[in-house]
Structures are given as structure tokens and as C-alpha cells.
């Protein structure tokens, strides 16, 4: 992506792409390990500009967000817009922490690394670019954490009511005609368990074991029997998953898989890979609904709040104590 263009210029548009990518629904429950998006910290040179339920937004936070908005070519009263963005994000972060639905720092770091790789950079190079532009890696990662975690909260609260009604689905299918097909996968998850206490000493060994097992994988029907021949290996049946519903962490690995398994990755549980039991193009009502939900999530990631999100954020604001200084 960086061929022939400035790295900073690539991040201008890349930040928006990242927001869309990280807003994909993430299946499963929040990981039990360290959570992302810690409370804001006041530095010695920053002034407190806003208090949100006794948590602070500093002049330093606002300056970083202004720099980030400039990278995205946003215009207008940037100090005011940046301040309000940060207030909204802090309200979201507080709610994410209240309902315990934050992604882990591992998830955020993985997304950050993928973003760097997609822009032909190492994470160290991305760190340098963000530092030079006054955004900082920490600020960008906090942004990623909110973008990844907030859809979980929305889905938990509005999951059922947020679905399209039959009439809405028919209307949108009529409008989109042939644009509602997607890929259907049936998946199994193979987990080489690594206890938290042994992550540092056992992780590399388990990854080597997982990678070696992929070449011998006998197929989904024999997956559990296969797992039973190895130590501390479990198999989860994920069932039918449509392409728009793939977790961000797995989506590129599934789409680039050349055999019946994906590459392995390190997660909170240990080392994992997915077995692709079947794959085909579908265009039924469920597929159409998944496509439309992903379109709506994309709009949300670009700042076009859905009705449910606006309702939720307005409710959080009405109950919050927000003090501007």
C-alpha cells in the first residue's frame, strides 16, 4: 500500500479502513486476561479539560485527537470536535468496562500489527510515524480498543431488536438485487491450550505442535478423535459462519487459507487454528441480513451512528456527570 506514497498519507485513509475492519462483530465472550482501554492518565504537562464521571480528558489527549483528525483530513472546529469525540469515547469505555465486554490487549495489539502489515510496515515503523505526527501509538490503540469493543456492547443490548424486520429485509434485498450473496463457512476451532501461568515457557512449543498438526489434520468429521491423540487439545464446533460475521482476528486467515485449516495464532487460550469444514456462496435471507448488518456497521465506523447507538450514547450522556473546564 505504501508503494509510491507517503506513509503518513497512507495512515490518513488507513485509519478509516481500520475503524471499519475492527467494527466487525466478535464472537464469544470477553477474554479473561488484561483488558484494553485503561483510564486516561494525566501527564505532568497536561491540563484537565473535561471530567466525565470523575475520569479526566486532558489537553494532551485533545491535542493527540486533533492530530489524528488531521491525518483523516477532517475539517471544522477541530478542538471542539476532538473534545466531544473523546467525551463520547470515554462514556463508551466506561460502559464497556461496566458490562465487562472489553476486548483484550492481545486483541488490540494484533489489530495494530495487522494494520501496520497492511501498510507495508513493521509495528516499530508505525510507532515512529504515529509518534512523529503527534498521535502516539497509545492513543491509536485506545481508539482501536473502543472500535473493537463497542459493537459487542451494542449487540448485547440491541441484538434482537437491532435485526431487520421481514419488511425491511425484503425492501433492502429489492434495492440491492444481486449484491446480497456472501460466503458461508462451517468451521471448527482447534485449541492447543496454554495455561496462563506457563505462557512464557510453553507458548513457542505449543505453536510448533499446532503448526505440525495442521499438515496431519484428517478433516472435520475426525477432528475430535484427532485432538484426543494429543495433550491438552480441544475442538469447538463453531457451526455456520457467514463472511460478514467472521471475527476480525480470523477473517484474513480464513480468506487466505489454501487448505482445510488456517494458519495458527496465539490467543488468550493458547494457540489456535480454524478448520474449514465447508465453504460455498449463498444468497438466502440470512446471508442478506448479514451483509446488510455489515454495511450498517461500516456506516457506524465512519461516524454515521445508527439509531440504536445514538439512543445508547444519548442515554449515557444524560446520566453522566460531565464538567468542562
Automatic annotation (TrEMBL):
Signal peptide: 1-30
Domain SurA N-terminal: 49-145
Gene3D superfamilies: Porin chaperone SurA, peptide-binding domain
Molecular function as annotated in GO: peptidyl-prolyl cis-trans isomerase activity
Cited InterPro entries: OMP_Chaperone_SurA, SurA_N, Trigger_fact/SurA_dom_sf
Organism: Rhizobium tumorigenes
Stored SUPFAM superfamilies: Triger factor/SurA peptide-binding domain-like
Keywords assigned by UniProt, alphabetized: Isomerase, Rotamase, Signal
Name listed for the protein in its UniProt record: Peptidylprolyl isomerase
